[in-house]
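Input:
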Amino acid sequence: MKDMLTLMRFDFMLVRSIALPVLVAAVLLLTLGSLLLTPYAACYLVAIVATMFIVPLMGSEDRNGFSKLYGILPVTRQSIPRARFLYIFLLCLTTEAYSVLIAALSHALQLVRYMPGQDSPMIVMARKAFEDPVTTPVGTCVGTFLIIVIAFSYMEMMGQLLGRENEFKVILITLAVLTALTFAFLHLVDLGVIEPRLPELPATLAFRIPLWLGLNLAAGAIVAVFGGITAARVSVREL
Amino acid sequence: MENILEIRGLNKTYGDFSLRDVSFSLPKGYIMGFVGQNGSGKTTTIRSLLGMAKPDSGSISVFGLDSVKDAINIKQRLGVVFDSLYLAQHLSARQVEQQLRPFYKDWSSEAYFSRLKAFDLPDDRRIGDFSKGMKMMLMIAVALSHKAELIILDEPTSGLDPVARDELLDILTEYMSDENRGVLFSTHITADVERIADYVTILHAGRVWYTGLKDDLTEQYVVIKGAPEDLPEAYRKQCIGYHAYRSGFDALLPADALAGLPSSIEPEKASIDEILVYIAKEDRNERHADTDAV
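Output:
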């Protein structure tokens, strides 16, 4: 575990100098946007933090010749990819926790009421967000986290397994397949072939909090599986 | 003598290239020059030693420990310098130190920064902007900052100017002031080996051609030159890299085969460089012989 923490720190330090100034600006802006305008602004945080702190890592091995460094560091080969997946998960999870907190705080305080220009279209739209129960913006933050953490873990797995040069191709194919399936599904719904009936989920926190925690655990399990597959395949390769 | 590094029967095949039964050892307190032409298998041997390549067979022990089972323990005590930088180019030397420090139990920030100062390396500039020599010195500073007992250098002097090369060799000599340490130094610049190595291993076409004391090597072979008709056939068969030209011939000959050689043929002490050249010529001679036969 100590190896994994050291490797996560290694990854963080690799992107810190590039990402930190943008991160500080984004966190400040979205926190203020969420507290003073709409709670939904906080939901963008996971996407921004992940983009700033994960994307630069992808391909950093090739750019910097880290295959040699990985060969001389006193860590196991398995721990290198595992640490990367743990880094992705913990980074997104921490940001999700922060965005949930800010969204809930924004909903509770509703500071938008005290903003000037209450009749302006932007403020009117922002105020509408508070007609939703608190579970909606918080649930959106959780949903964003789930999509981002799974998407980035998938990208990392593909990049490590197939090579960064093929990663883009694979991701495009995956997106095209998902888009085609979504359109096919919507078309079938439109034709009345499928009648999707989503269960009405209670909007109470007593129901939603365990659901969100369960979804977080499921996301963690998916990332762990991606990490496990990648580590098993990558660690037997020569550097 | 206790060996700090021992390689026994190492075999590794990549397509057309094979390392075949590579065996050599380096006693504690010495520097070994690991020489051979490009593509002779030096880097593959080093990669096998570091666990970066998986040998088909053979065993490698470092500090008396198995290179596979005790890899982490070994790497804590090993410093490695490659021919190209393996650190994040956009970071400064100070940031690199913060990144690498937690990996090593015996890391000394003081040693690292004092080396940077001694090497005149700025700690706040992007290391990607460093010159080749500066990058090499930075890797040396990293390798020497965790009390490494064995330093492995893979072609560290290729591409360095003579001043930087000289500086690097001085650092290695200074490092060896502690007799519990060792250096394995792969290069095809044999002048560097002549200057600092105690032992030499010559790798040729994936096989160990010679391993032992450097002085023994240069005493074991001589270069002979003269008129081809002065060289009896029995001697010619023992020649390595025999090359005839319009006014004479030259070849490498084992020193113990010198007895009875006509006085018209003058033997000269062979340098490592000459030995490498004659080994390569011998290969070409064999190829020509094969072609002729066909």
